[in-house]
Design a protein that fits this description.
- By secondary structure, the chain is of the alpha/beta class.
- It has one domain: Purple Acid Phosphatase, chain A, domain 2 (4-Layer Sandwich).
- It contains 4 helices and 10 strands, in the order E-H-E-H-E-H-E-E-H-E-E-E-E-E.
- Strands 3-2-1-9-10 form a 5-stranded mixed sheet, with helices on one face. The chain has a 5-stranded mixed sheet with strand order 4-5-6-8-7, covered by helices on one side.
């Protein structure tokens, strides 16, 4: 069986209706959605839950208000098809230069297959320390900014194989 998971984060939107339509389409075609924080509104979480129910998993980020923090954990682990997926924002935010080592430390006692984090707005899919390391990038559209593009990561689990692909979002 093949399982598709849409991974996103750093949406920084006030309502679910502001979610880019292309991202919504990917979520609708996926079995699961994982969001790594910085929704900035509980309304966004409610939209994900309405769309995916128990197949939505998320953590809060450093830019999330208390109602979001009260609803979600700062880090979580999901097992799909026997693959262990850990994810965090991290909630402390902070400088990007030590972020990866902090994320590894947060999950050092876990035997993960995939480790996902957000915060940097820069997408990444690499193999490191015997696991797949993923950052989905930023999940909101900007019309007059020359920074990183809007992206999600599509994670495919098929048997023993795990593949993550960065998808650039245009609309």
């Amino acid at each position: 069986m093949t399982v598709k998971i849409t991974i996103l984060g750093d949406t920084h939107i006030k309502s679910f209706e502001k979610l880019p339509k292309e991202i919504l389409g990917e979520i609708q075609q996926s079995e699961w959605i994982i969001h790594v924080g910085d929704y900035t509104s509980i309304q966004v979480i409610k939209g994900f839950i309405e769309l995916k129910g128990t197949r939505f998993r998320g953590v809060y980020g450093n830019a999330d208000p208390m109602d979001v923090r009260d609803r979600l954990e700062s880090k979580d682990i999901l097992t799909v098809q026997g693959k262990k997926i850990g994810f965090t924002h991290p909630a402390s935010g902070g400088p990007e230069e030590n972020l990866e080592s902090k994320v590894f430390t947060d999950f050092e006692k876990e035997d993960l297959d995939v480790l996902i984090y957000g915060h940097t707005h820069e997408s990444k899919v690499i193999h490191k320390n015997n696991l797949l390391l993923i950052n989905p990038g930023k999940g909101y559209l900007e019309t007059n900014f020359f920074g990183p593009p809007t992206t999600v990561v599509i994670l495919i689990i098929k048997g023993d194989k795990i593949q993550g692909t960065i998808k650039e979002i245009k609309s």
